[in-house]
TrEMBL record:
InterPro entries: AB_hydrolase_fold, CMBL, Dienelactn_hydro. This is Carboxymethylenebutenolidase homolog. Pfam families: DLH. SUPFAM superfamilies: alpha/beta-Hydrolases (SSF53474). Belongs to the dienelactone hydrolase family. Residues 28-241 form the Dienelactone hydrolase domain.
Amino acid sequence: QMADPFLYDTGERSHYGCLGHEVQIEHIKAYVCRPSFSTDKAVIVAHDVFGWRFSDIRYIVDLIAGHGYITICPDFFKGTKPWTPTDHWTDFPDWMKNHDPMKVDKEADVVLKYLKEQCGAKKIGIVGFSWGGMAVHHLMLKNPQLTAGVSLYGIIRDSEERYHLLNPTFFIFGEKDHTISLDQIFLLEDKLKQYCEVPYKIKVYPGQVHGFAQLKPEDMKPDDKPYIEEARRDMIDWIKMFV
């Protein structure tokens, strides 16, 4: 029996009333939240395995929008069923085969076009969590239209092609994440030093497990709260620096 890699409890979560709205863009739906003033800066949020409707992700979208960005979370699963907390981990590898975080280019292009043509966005960044963190790492290697990326605890796939980032990318990890070892993180750092020609940053947050940075305030444990808040500030600071 595979251990549940998401150590936070997704069943007993507080309700969240969203600030944004849903839109249909070509073949996908998306959740959009706009700031109170007009701006030509936007951020795409890549959700985790629980999909674009998960309240934690919507909370993050609204949070980023509050910092002055048109923020959008598209359904990268294209209407297929996201992973749910009641699914069995033995089925996870099969589910992942049909939900490959490296196959997000088409959806990213659709959303970039929408942001530029419908929302007047000139600079666009991307932030992703877990499954979405892997998607961000992939897109920052492939899509020059994304001016900055933040990948939060995206499992690291090691190969030579993974280090030539096109634009500034920030990697956030939890020290106690049992899906990503510290050895993998050190290797990533080492390889980026060798190959990467744009600004990058790697930061590990003490005592934090996989999924730590997307918790809503009322779901945080007091010991973790300072690290969660720090990770969010760091994420926003990176976006503000480059987008």
